[in-house]
Amino acid sequence: MGNALNNTNLGGFPKEYNPRIHGAYQADRFYGTPDKPFSSLKVNEVFQWLNRRDMSLTGIARFYSRKLYSHQRRYHLSAGSKGVGFVHFALFFSFLGFIRAYKHDRHLDDGKYH
Amino acid sequence: VAQLYGITRLSVGQARCNTTSVQATGSKGEAPLWNEEDGWVVLDPPSDTAVVERLAKQEDWSNVHYLTRPDLSQQEKQWFKEAYKSPYKLYPPEKFLLKRGGNVVVEYVRVPVGTTRRQMIEKSFEAPEDEKDIAPFDLKKQWAWANKVLFGPQRDMKNYPSYVDPGTVPRPEIVHKFVPRSLFDAMVPYSGVTGFYVLSVGGVFALVGKGVIVSTYALSYFFYFGIAWAFTKLPPVRRFLDNRVPQLTNRLNEMYYVGPIQQKKDHISACIAAAQQTKDMIQQLPKLYDVQIENVDLQLENNYRDRLKQAFTEVKSRLDCQVALAATKAELEKDYMIDWITNQVVQNITPDLEKKNIQSCLAQLQTLSKSAKI
C-alpha cells in the first residue's frame, strides 16, 4: 500500500516547476502551461477551458493558495496598505457567515405582512 | 519502508549515510559512482584505500565508512560505531572532545609569505579547522550553485522576471477604503461611472425585496451606518467636520501627548538650570570659606583684645594701687614731718622771741606804709 505514495508529490513543488527556467519559487504564480485568462473567454470556450484546468483536490488547493498569496502580496505586503487586506479578509468571511446563516431566517420569507 | 522516493538503495543502515555533491569517480576511474541528476543516492562504503585517502584529503567524510577511516583513534572509532548503530546517540564534535594538553583555542592562522590582505580576509571568513569536517558548508559555493541554477542559460527572464520585494511596491488604488479601482474602472464602459454604486446598492435592495437578505428588525440598523456615512459626505457637514475634528484631535493630542512631553522637557530644563546654579554656587564657595575664616579671625582678635584690655586694666589697677600706696605713704610722711616740724618749731617758740617777731613785723609794716601809695 505504501507503493501508492511512490509517484505522489506531497508538500513539494509542482511538477512543472523548474528553478533553472522559472527562477526562485513564487507562491502566487502559476508554473503550468500558459492559458487564456478567464476574463478574455467567450461563453462557448468556458467548458473547454475548465476541462483543461486541473480540477483535482491538489489543483483546487493550489489555486486557492495562489489566490491567497497574490491577494496578500498586492494588498497586505505593499507599501501603505493600511489594513485593506484585513478588511477584505473580514468581508470574505462575513460572506461565508452569511451563507452559513442563510437558512436561519427562511421561516420569515413567506410572511404575508412583512 | 522498502522503497522511498528518490532513493535507489534499500538497506536501512546504508540509508543513514548522507551524500553531498562530490565528484566521486569509480575505484578503477571508469564510470562515476554517482550522477548529479539521480539526486539523493546512497553508496556502498568503498573498499579501496586510495579512494578513502582521496576523500579524506577532500575532507568529505560522508561517503567513508567508519571502519575504513585510518585517521581516527580507537576511542573515536568506538564512538562512531555507537553513534552509527544507535538512532539517538550523536558522535561528539571534535571541539567537545578532551584532548591531551588541554582544550586550548588558538586564534592565529599560518599563512605563507606574500599573502595579500584580501586573501587574509577571505581566509578569516572560512570555518575553523575543527568544524570543517563536521559540517562542510561553504557559503560561496552555495551562492555560486544558486546563481548557476537560478540564473543559468535556461532562465526565462521575460515571463518570469526576478523577485520583487513587495514592500517596495505601492498599494493598488482603492476607492471607498476597500474597493479596488481596477474593478471600478472595468465597470465604467458597461454601466457608466455610477455602475458600481447602482449595482451594490440596488443589488442589496433587490436581494432584500426577493427575500435573500431577510428583512428583520435588525436590518434597518445596517442602513443607518450608510445613511450616516452619506450624511457626512454632504458639503456643509464635511466643512464642519474638517474644522471640528482636527480641533478636537489637536486638543486631545496636546493634552495626552504634547503636554506631558513639554512638561517633562520643562522639568528637565529646570533641573538643568538648578544644577547649573548649584555648580556656580560651588564655584563661589571658596569665597565663603575665606569670609568664614576672616570671621573667625575677627572673633579671635576680639577675644585677644578683650583679654589684653583685661590684663592691662588689672596690671594698671595693681600699679595704681602701688602708686596710691606710695603717694599715701609720702603724703603721710610729709604731713607727719610738717606737723612734727611745726610742732617742734611751735614748741621752740619762746614768748620773748614771739614778742621780737611781732615788733619786727610792725616795724616792717611801718616802713612799707611809708612807701605805699594808697
Structural class of chain A: mainly alpha
Q: Largest sheet of chain B at a glance?
A: 2 strands, antiparallel
Biggest β-sheet strands, sense, barrel of chain A: none
Q: Given the helix and strand composition of chain B, which structural class is it?
A: mainly alpha
Order of helices and strands of chain A: HHHH
Number of helical regions of chain A:
4
What proportion of the residues of chain B form beta strands (DSSP E)? under 5%
Mean pLDDT of chain B: 83
Query: Which radius of gyration of chain A do the C-alpha atoms yield?
Result: 20 Å
> Which stretches of chain B of 5+ consecutive residues score pLDDT under 50?
1-11, 19-25
Q: Approximately how much helix is present in the residues of chain A?
A: 40-55%
Oligomer: heterodimer
**Integer count of domains of chain A:** 1
What is the number of beta strands of chain B?
2
Q: What would you call the shape of chain B?
A: elongated
Strand content bin of chain A:
under 5%
Alpha carbon gap, first and last residue of chain B: 184 Å
- Helix count of chain B equals 11
Largest interface, counted with CB-CB under 8 A?
Answer: A-B, 33 and 29 residues
Strands in their spatial order, largest beta sheet of chain B = 1-2
Rg of chain B: 64 Å
